[in-house]
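Subject: sequence -> structure tokens, single chain

Hey, anyone have a minute? Need the predicted structure for the following. Not urgent.
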Amino acid sequence: AAASAMGTCHCCQNSTTSTQFVVSVTKESGTQLGLELDFMDMKTGRVVEVLPNGAVQQTGANLKAGDHIISANGSRAAMEIMQRLREDESVDILVERPCEFRVDVAKSTSGLGLDLVNAPKGTSLLVRTVIPNGAIEEWNSKNKAKEVKKMDRIVEVNGIRGLWPRLLEALKTQENFSLVFSSAPQVFKEPTARIETETVTVS
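Reply:
Had a minute. Here:
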């Protein structure tokens, strides 16, 4: 996507929230779906690449790099999504296209303040934790509308996009940053998602 003004959404035009839609794909006999996916967040499959000659490309399905697969034929768990995509001949895919937002910061004495993880072939760095007293926490305190949160992803560093080692190298070697984040899928913002992780059964 073309660069846009700081804090505006690259992919959703005037909207500041992600969009969800359903894509239906039917695989011909012997044809693969044709998606390189990153399940790093343990809930959704983020599209890393639409592969040539797969069913998605052949049918012109509305899927592109950066989209998140939320469910496949009703299955919403990561392992079940993978199974449905691999085994089912026809698949209805619930897709979320996240928005991107720009954050301009400089490293503080405590650093950038992000705990990041990556998928082997990923093109993003997933925010596992915002570390206290870092530059990002300071940014968050002053920019509530563009707050960086757990499960957001860095997808661009100072104009650089691509495989995660390029992003990480830029983060390590530079001091001033114009970062583009891809917002976490809505499934991580639903109250039920938080309740599930906090519920304790007492016998």
